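Progress against Task 2.4 (sequence-to-structure conversion) is shown through the following example record, which the project officer requested during the mid-term review.
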Amino acid sequence: MATITMNNQQLEVTNEMTILEAAKAHNINIPTLCHYPDLAINSDCRICVVEIEGKRMLPTSCSTPVQDGMVIYTNSPRVLQARKTITELMLSSHDANCTACTRNMRCELQTLSKNLGIDINRFEPTYKDLPIDDNNPSLVRNMNRCIKCGRCVDVCKTVQGVHVLERMGRSNEMMIAPAFNQSLNNLICTYCGQCANVCPVGAIMEKDDTDLVWENLHNPKKRTLVQVAPAVRVAIGESFHSLDDTVPIGKLVSALKHLGFDEVYDTNFTADLTIMEEGNELIYRIQNDDVLPMMTSCCPGWINYVEQHHSDILKHISSCKSPQQMFGALAKNYYKEQENLNKEDIFVVSIMPCTAKKYEAKREEFTDQYDNPDVDVVLTTRELEKMFRQMGVDFDQLDNRDFDEPFGMTSGAAQLFGASGGVMEAALRTVTEVLSGKPLKSLDFSAVRGMDGIKEASFNLKGQEIKVAVSHSLSNAEQLIQGIKDGTSPYTFIEIMACPGGCIGGGGQPYGTDSASRLKRMETTYRVDLEKDIRKSHDNPAIKTLYDNYLQKPLSELSHHLLHTRYYPR
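Structure tokens generated for the chain above:
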């Protein structure tokens, strides 16, 4: 322990703490910009400077460890003036058209400026009118807003291991961009959106498709269908500061009806369908000595990564489409037939926690020969929040409504898709029962839960030991990939999700997502599963009816046509 004095208060802190950590532990606020939970400390912005007795310079609190006897001032006139000057310099090179920015009123630079009392900037504007990079379906880079904090570089390198973004140049010419300042469309970007999640000012954000959705909601010729992903429902409440940050699913359905959607469906239905198809594909591979380990295909960020970096292991990827795309295929085929509609009359919207889903929906494989996509538009959780605010939705005033049929009944296993390890656990519940012919004594596969980067489990299946592995974030996935490449992988089944924590930490989730919010969403996910009457995908009667009346059986010819695909080197 060390004894320090901060703002004339004597504090007991541990030696391993930085000054910033010590301040937070004692509810003393030190503002930051480049600092972000779960990322490396770079001290790039210097907003968090403090004054230490006996020191000439103002050190950054985020990178300076405490020492016994330190006397620290976090808000002395010298410190406040330094912070104000640094912030004004940032503002001078920043496009301050705040009302046109998606982060208006939620911008960290805007909040900092307000708290520091900056009403008029003493420095002349110096920012250049740089071109906006929006040549891909998922992300927009507007470097006129960039404050060069480096968060996006750190998350792309250290968390995802993709290395698309770099710091380039020096002094006031320094900029953050892909190599040679290329467009993201020309690079090996996975569109995971983690850069957009950590950006404090909206310099990187998801491509906004809300206007297109509004246009079709008011088109009387269109039947508008919307599906809601499991990770959305455990996060959307954070944006509206509800008491427990969880909006009841019945109120979420009501809110979507309030926006004008004709039918509101649950992506969990096709998550159950994914387990039926993927689980039976795994059983087929085990029983026929086919390619193992099999790897999940639900995450488009992961699929982008393996197509671009490791196309030699594509044979290990499940042929199943993601739940989003399975829903789209059913909507444009099964639903079309049931309602006697043309494909062109149906407009399918997905609400996803993910920016890569926007790219996935535009893939050629998921569009028919007439350029009619299975999923027309993907909105992130943040875009849905925007639409709710535009309509003045008040969740407290809404009644609970059920999902529409025929895609409304779901299992608890499907809800697990939102968390890292959830696809694995849902699959194990079905595969073990189908192969053993016996009901499971416990449905909880705790070994694949949690926030460890790589989780392993093994279980006995009819005398055969089956090993499985779960990974989240692409840098962790590399370890499992190398085991497959060098022939040492002991696993039968591997789940990989591109984003930290899985979909609950997706690139389109509410701003401020960190390890604490991911854990909270994960806990809610498992609580929803426990509260479900049906907790196994193969017990879902609506899924059974779909097979009996339309698909015939898992892996049937029609199932392969609608619900499976191939992935290619890119």
